[in-house]
Amino acid sequence: MRKKRVLLLSEGFGSGHTQAAHALAAGLRQLNPDIQTRVMELGNFLNPVLGPLIISAYRKTVSKQPKMVGLMYRSNYKKSLNRFMQLALHRMFYTHTSQVISQLKPDLVICTHPVPNAVVSRLKRLGLDMKLCTVITDYDAHGSWVNQEVNNFLVSSSLVKDKLINHGVPESRINVTGIPVHPHFWKTYDKAEIRQQFGLKELPTVLIMGGGWGLMYEDSLLEYMTEWRERVQFIFCVGNNDKVKEKMLANPRFRHENIRVIGFTKEVSKLMDVADVLVTKPGGMTCTEGMSKGIPMLFYEPIPGQEEQNCEYFIQGGFGEMLEKTETVDKWMKMIQQPDISSQYRQALLNKRNEEYNPLTCPKAVLQLLQ
């Protein structure tokens, strides 16, 4: 009997979309090793020259003009990608998408980004007989995700479900599963072993993340935080942003025995276990990983649009707060130096997580779709 095949399509506009695809693929294989999965950033795969150039331009826009990104997000909030745009994308990037699907012969296509979602939807309108599932990777539902050809939407929360219904999606096609996280986030690691692995001290620890692109800007509060470096240990994770890493390492403030500056790592799940608080850009993926670990979160510099919505969701849920003033920094630096209080706070978040989120729900929902 042929093994079930799942093709997961994403794009590189921010690392979270592709991370979600890999996380779901790993979760599926963990639950059922017989399932074959393939993750693809479709534009980069089909057009390896032009695709990265467009993503690079988008990255620069996000870092230099975030307000413009927010304006574009809000102005098209209720709109799907129109037919002309879908046709243009198809001609420029995705003319061979149907060939890729034909060669791989998946039983299910899952999209974790709106663009491949729109392209496969167009192919279905043109006659492609394929079950299409969309995983929304934020705590908001922009209209660009919505296509009537999608058979199932897997969403982060009931709030997103309601927003999709307002966009005209039938309730029967929507499952609230939470955003998938990698199985590494399903378990707890030994803190002593982590400290030994990374050369860390047994001190209150703050993990600061700038997302896959390492967009830390020039946030003065992040620098202010290091005033506590004699009593608190800091791990700055700047992703693939080598320029930020070099700049930080050239600054005497960050060259301290209790400050670590690291680039891209696959060990974020371990670092979250050894940390007492997470300071992060509020990407949907990172926030969900933080929630899965029950780690309190402080959010800084949300990009207008979906990151603002992510912030609002987690703040209202009690999982974090905005980092907007020095008093907030001081409050948390003092709290994590009180082990009993810090431990109680984290246990409360783990209890809340158990009520609201189960990392197995999303891959289990996909397994049901494959039956």
Describe the protein's architecture and organization.
- By secondary structure, this protein is of the alpha/beta class.
- The protein folds into 2 domains: 5-180 and 358-370, Glycogen Phosphorylase B (Rossmann fold); 184-337, Rossmann fold (3-Layer(aba) Sandwich).
- The chain has helices spanning 16-31, 42-46, 50-64, 66-75, 83-92, 97-104, 114-125, 158-166, 191-198, 220-225, 242-249, 268-274, 284-293, 306-316, 326-335, 339-356, 361-370; strands at residues 5-10, 36-41, 108-111, 132-135, 152-155, 174-176, 205-209, 233-237, 259-262, 277-280, 297-299, 320-322.
- It has a 6-stranded parallel β-sheet, sandwiched between helices. Strands 9-8-7-10-11-12 form a 6-stranded parallel β-sheet, sandwiched between helices.
- Helix 13 links the parallel strand 10 and strand 11 (297-299).
- The radius of gyration is 21 Å and the shape is elongated.
- The relative contact order is 0.13.
